[in-house]
Protein backbone atom coordinates (compact mmCIF):
# COMPACT_ATOMS: atom_id res chain seq x y z
CA UNK A 1 0.00 0.00 0.00
CA UNK A 2 2.79 2.41 0.94
CA UNK A 3 4.65 1.67 -2.30
CA UNK A 4 1.47 2.35 -4.27
CA UNK A 5 1.02 5.73 -2.57
CA UNK A 6 4.67 6.62 -3.09
CA UNK A 7 4.32 5.91 -6.82
CA UNK A 8 1.34 8.22 -7.26
CA UNK A 9 2.23 11.31 -9.26
CA UNK A 10 0.75 14.59 -8.06
CA UNK A 11 0.49 15.65 -11.71
CA UNK A 12 -2.01 12.86 -12.35
CA UNK A 13 -3.85 13.71 -9.13
CA UNK A 14 -4.20 17.38 -10.12
CA UNK A 15 -5.41 16.47 -13.60
CA UNK A 16 -7.90 13.97 -12.15
CA UNK A 17 -9.24 16.51 -9.64
CA UNK A 18 -9.77 19.10 -12.36
CA UNK A 19 -11.59 16.59 -14.56
CA UNK A 20 -13.77 15.30 -11.70
CA UNK A 21 -14.68 18.83 -10.61
CA UNK A 22 -15.60 19.71 -14.21
CA UNK A 23 -17.90 16.67 -14.41
CA UNK A 24 -19.49 17.70 -11.12
CA UNK A 25 -20.13 21.26 -12.33
CA UNK A 26 -21.66 19.99 -15.56
CA UNK A 27 -23.90 17.59 -13.64
CA UNK A 28 -24.85 20.33 -11.16
CA UNK A 29 -25.67 22.69 -14.04
CA UNK A 30 -27.91 20.04 -15.58
CA UNK A 31 -29.82 19.05 -12.44
CA UNK A 32 -30.29 22.53 -10.96
CA UNK A 33 -30.37 24.87 -13.96
CA UNK A 34 -31.43 22.53 -16.78
CA UNK A 35 -28.21 23.13 -18.74
CA UNK A 36 -27.93 20.24 -21.21
CA UNK A 37 -24.67 21.42 -22.77
CA UNK A 38 -21.96 19.04 -21.55
CA UNK A 39 -19.31 21.23 -23.14
CA UNK A 40 -19.77 24.06 -20.63
CA UNK A 41 -20.88 24.81 -17.07
CA UNK A 42 -23.44 27.37 -16.00
CA UNK A 43 -21.89 30.52 -14.49
CA UNK A 44 -24.18 30.19 -11.46
CA UNK A 45 -22.75 26.74 -10.83
CA UNK A 46 -19.17 27.99 -11.12
CA UNK A 47 -19.96 30.75 -8.66
CA UNK A 48 -21.38 28.25 -6.17
CA UNK A 49 -18.28 26.05 -6.55
CA UNK A 50 -15.97 28.97 -5.69
CA UNK A 51 -15.21 30.97 -8.83
CA UNK A 52 -13.28 34.22 -8.45
CA UNK A 53 -15.68 37.15 -8.05
CA UNK A 54 -14.39 40.52 -6.88
CA UNK A 55 -17.33 41.72 -4.71
CA UNK A 56 -17.56 38.30 -3.02
CA UNK A 57 -13.84 38.24 -2.27
CA UNK A 58 -13.99 41.75 -0.82
CA UNK A 59 -16.87 40.62 1.37
CA UNK A 60 -14.63 37.97 2.94
CA UNK A 61 -14.96 34.93 0.68
CA UNK A 62 -11.21 34.49 0.44
CA UNK A 63 -11.48 30.88 -0.72
CA UNK A 64 -12.24 32.33 -4.15
CA UNK A 65 -8.52 33.10 -4.47
CA UNK A 66 -7.66 29.37 -4.54
CA UNK A 67 -10.61 27.25 -5.67
CA UNK A 68 -10.86 28.78 -9.20
CA UNK A 69 -7.65 26.87 -10.07
CA UNK A 70 -9.75 23.68 -10.07
CA UNK A 71 -12.72 25.04 -12.02
CA UNK A 72 -13.21 25.38 -15.79
CA UNK A 73 -15.97 26.97 -17.79
CA UNK A 74 -15.84 24.69 -20.82
CA UNK A 75 -14.46 21.39 -22.04
CA UNK A 76 -12.01 23.16 -24.37
CA UNK A 77 -10.82 25.35 -21.50
CA UNK A 78 -10.24 22.24 -19.38
CA UNK A 79 -8.54 20.28 -22.17
CA UNK A 80 -6.05 23.03 -23.01
CA UNK A 81 -5.01 23.58 -19.40
CA UNK A 82 -4.77 19.87 -18.62
CA UNK A 83 -2.69 19.25 -21.75
CA UNK A 84 -0.07 21.75 -20.60
CA UNK A 85 -0.31 20.68 -16.95
CA UNK A 86 0.20 17.03 -17.85
CA UNK A 87 3.16 17.77 -20.12
CA UNK A 88 5.00 20.17 -17.82
CA UNK A 89 3.90 18.65 -14.53
CA UNK A 90 5.44 15.25 -15.12
CA UNK A 91 8.79 16.75 -16.11
CA UNK A 92 8.80 19.17 -13.17
CA UNK A 93 7.83 16.40 -10.76
CA UNK A 94 10.90 14.41 -11.78
CA UNK A 95 13.24 17.28 -10.91
CA UNK A 96 11.41 18.87 -7.96
CA UNK A 97 9.25 16.14 -6.46
CA UNK A 98 5.55 16.00 -5.62
CA UNK A 99 5.51 18.44 -2.73
CA UNK A 100 7.13 21.31 -4.61
CA UNK A 101 5.03 20.73 -7.72
CA UNK A 102 1.87 21.00 -5.62
CA UNK A 103 3.22 24.14 -3.94
CA UNK A 104 3.98 25.79 -7.28
CA UNK A 105 0.52 24.94 -8.65
CA UNK A 106 -1.34 26.28 -5.61
CA UNK A 107 0.82 29.35 -4.92
CA UNK A 108 0.90 30.43 -8.57
CA UNK A 109 -2.88 30.12 -8.76
CA UNK A 110 -3.24 32.03 -5.48
CA UNK A 111 -1.00 34.93 -6.45
CA UNK A 112 -2.46 34.91 -9.95
CA UNK A 113 -5.89 35.46 -8.37
CA UNK A 114 -4.49 38.26 -6.22
CA UNK A 115 -3.06 39.94 -9.33
CA UNK A 116 -6.45 39.58 -10.99
CA UNK A 117 -8.20 41.15 -7.99
CA UNK A 118 -5.74 44.05 -7.93
CA UNK A 119 -6.25 44.76 -11.64
CA UNK A 120 -10.03 44.57 -11.19
CA UNK A 121 -9.86 47.00 -8.27
CA UNK A 122 -7.77 49.42 -10.31
CA UNK A 123 -10.33 49.18 -13.09
CA UNK A 124 -13.18 49.82 -10.67
CA UNK A 125 -11.48 52.87 -9.16
CA UNK A 126 -10.53 54.25 -12.56
CA UNK A 127 -14.18 54.24 -13.61
CA UNK A 128 -15.32 55.85 -10.38
CA UNK A 129 -17.31 52.79 -9.38
CA UNK A 130 -19.28 52.79 -12.64
CA UNK A 131 -18.85 49.03 -12.98
CA UNK A 132 -21.94 47.33 -11.57
CA UNK A 133 -21.53 43.79 -12.93
CA UNK A 134 -18.34 41.89 -12.16
CA UNK A 135 -17.65 38.70 -14.12
CA UNK A 136 -16.47 35.48 -12.55
CA UNK A 137 -13.08 33.98 -13.37
CA UNK A 138 -12.07 30.31 -13.34
CA UNK A 139 -9.31 28.09 -14.67
CA UNK A 140 -5.93 26.55 -13.94
CA UNK A 141 -4.19 28.94 -16.34
CA UNK A 142 -2.52 30.96 -13.57
CA UNK A 143 -1.16 27.74 -12.08
CA UNK A 144 -0.02 26.51 -15.49
CA UNK A 145 1.78 29.78 -16.16
CA UNK A 146 3.37 29.30 -12.74
CA UNK A 147 4.83 25.97 -13.87
CA UNK A 148 6.31 27.71 -16.89
CA UNK A 149 7.65 30.43 -14.63
CA UNK A 150 9.26 27.79 -12.39
CA UNK A 151 11.25 26.44 -15.34
CA UNK A 152 12.24 29.96 -16.38
CA UNK A 153 13.29 30.81 -12.83
CA UNK A 154 15.39 27.66 -12.64
CA UNK A 155 17.16 28.56 -15.89
CA UNK A 156 18.12 31.97 -14.50
CA UNK A 157 19.15 30.70 -11.08
CA UNK A 158 22.77 31.55 -10.36
CA UNK A 159 23.61 28.52 -8.23
CA UNK A 160 26.43 26.12 -9.05
CA UNK A 161 25.00 23.55 -6.61
CA UNK A 162 21.58 23.44 -8.27
CA UNK A 163 21.60 21.72 -11.69
CA UNK A 164 19.62 23.54 -14.34
CA UNK A 165 16.73 21.72 -15.96
CA UNK A 166 17.32 21.26 -19.71
CA UNK A 167 14.52 23.35 -21.22
CA UNK A 168 14.10 25.54 -24.26
CA UNK A 169 13.94 28.95 -22.57
CA UNK A 170 13.22 30.76 -25.85
CA UNK A 171 10.39 28.34 -26.56
CA UNK A 172 8.85 28.94 -23.14
CA UNK A 173 9.01 32.72 -23.56
CA UNK A 174 7.50 32.36 -27.03
CA UNK A 175 4.62 30.37 -25.54
CA UNK A 176 4.09 33.01 -22.86
CA UNK A 177 4.20 35.98 -25.25
CA UNK A 178 1.90 34.35 -27.81
CA UNK A 179 -0.68 33.46 -25.16
CA UNK A 180 -0.59 36.91 -23.56
CA UNK A 181 -0.91 38.60 -26.96
CA UNK A 182 -3.80 36.29 -27.83
CA UNK A 183 -5.43 37.13 -24.52
CA UNK A 184 -5.10 40.88 -24.98
CA UNK A 185 -6.32 40.66 -28.57
CA UNK A 186 -9.23 38.44 -27.66
CA UNK A 187 -10.32 40.80 -24.92
CA UNK A 188 -10.13 43.80 -27.23
CA UNK A 189 -12.34 42.10 -29.81
CA UNK A 190 -14.76 41.09 -27.06
CA UNK A 191 -17.15 38.15 -26.68
CA UNK A 192 -19.30 36.45 -24.09
CA UNK A 193 -16.20 35.67 -22.04
CA UNK A 194 -12.72 37.12 -21.64
CA UNK A 195 -9.22 35.86 -20.89
CA UNK A 196 -7.79 36.77 -17.49
CA UNK A 197 -4.30 37.91 -18.47
CA UNK A 198 -3.73 39.43 -15.03
CA UNK A 199 -3.97 35.96 -13.48
CA UNK A 200 -1.63 34.60 -16.16
CA UNK A 201 0.99 37.26 -15.49
CA UNK A 202 0.61 36.92 -11.71
CA UNK A 203 1.03 33.16 -11.94
CA UNK A 204 4.02 33.49 -14.25
CA UNK A 205 5.85 35.94 -11.97
CA UNK A 206 5.08 33.77 -8.94
CA UNK A 207 6.51 30.75 -10.73
CA UNK A 208 9.69 32.61 -11.66
CA UNK A 209 10.22 33.62 -8.03
CA UNK A 210 9.65 30.03 -6.90
CA UNK A 211 12.08 28.82 -9.57
CA UNK A 212 14.72 31.09 -8.05
CA UNK A 213 13.90 29.91 -4.51
CA UNK A 214 13.29 26.18 -4.91
CA UNK A 215 16.10 23.68 -5.29
CA UNK A 216 15.82 20.56 -7.41
CA UNK A 217 15.92 17.11 -5.82
CA UNK A 218 19.43 16.43 -7.12
CA UNK A 219 21.05 19.66 -5.95
CA UNK A 220 24.54 19.24 -4.53
CA UNK A 221 24.08 21.56 -1.55
CA UNK A 222 21.21 23.43 0.06
CA UNK A 223 21.53 25.94 2.87
CA UNK A 224 19.47 25.75 6.06
CA UNK A 225 17.57 28.97 5.36
CA UNK A 226 16.65 27.74 1.89
CA UNK A 227 15.26 24.51 3.35
CA UNK A 228 13.19 26.45 5.89
CA UNK A 229 11.74 28.71 3.18
CA UNK A 230 10.86 25.74 0.99
CA UNK A 231 9.22 23.85 3.86
CA UNK A 232 7.20 26.93 4.81
CA UNK A 233 5.98 27.51 1.25
CA UNK A 234 5.01 23.87 0.80
CA UNK A 235 3.13 23.86 4.11
CA UNK A 236 1.50 27.19 3.30
CA UNK A 237 0.21 25.85 -0.03
CA UNK A 238 -1.37 22.83 1.67
CA UNK A 239 -2.96 25.03 4.33
CA UNK A 240 -4.33 27.33 1.61
CA UNK A 241 -6.14 24.47 -0.09
CA UNK A 242 -7.49 22.92 3.11
CA UNK A 243 -8.65 26.25 4.56
CA UNK A 244 -10.25 27.26 1.25
CA UNK A 245 -12.29 24.06 1.10
CA UNK A 246 -13.29 24.21 4.77
CA UNK A 247 -14.22 27.91 4.66
CA UNK A 248 -16.24 27.41 1.50
CA UNK A 249 -18.18 24.49 2.97
CA UNK A 250 -18.99 26.15 6.30
CA UNK A 251 -19.34 29.84 5.43
CA UNK A 252 -20.73 30.01 1.89
CA UNK A 253 -24.48 30.53 1.75
TrEMBL record:
Residues 60-215 form the Peptidase S54 rhomboid domain. It is a multi-pass membrane protein. GO terms for biological process: proteolysis. The chain crosses the membrane at residues 12-33, 65-89, 101-125, 131-153, 165-186, 198-216, 228-251. The keyword Protease applies. It is found in: Membrane. GO terms for cellular component: membrane. The keyword Transmembrane applies. It holds the Pfam family Rhomboid. GO terms for molecular function: serine-type endopeptidase activity. Gene3D superfamilies: Rhomboid-like. Its main location: membrane. Keywords: Hydrolase, Membrane, Protease, Transmembrane, Transmembrane helix. Belongs to the peptidase S54 family. This is Rhomboid family intramembrane serine protease.
Amino acid sequence: MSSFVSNIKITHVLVAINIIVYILTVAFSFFFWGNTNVFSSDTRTLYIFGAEHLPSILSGQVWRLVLPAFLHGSLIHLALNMYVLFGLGEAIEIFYGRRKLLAVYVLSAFFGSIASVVVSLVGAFSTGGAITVYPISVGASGAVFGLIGLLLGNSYKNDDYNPRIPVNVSGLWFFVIINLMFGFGFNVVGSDFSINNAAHIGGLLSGIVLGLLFSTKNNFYQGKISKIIESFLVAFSVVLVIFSIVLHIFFFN
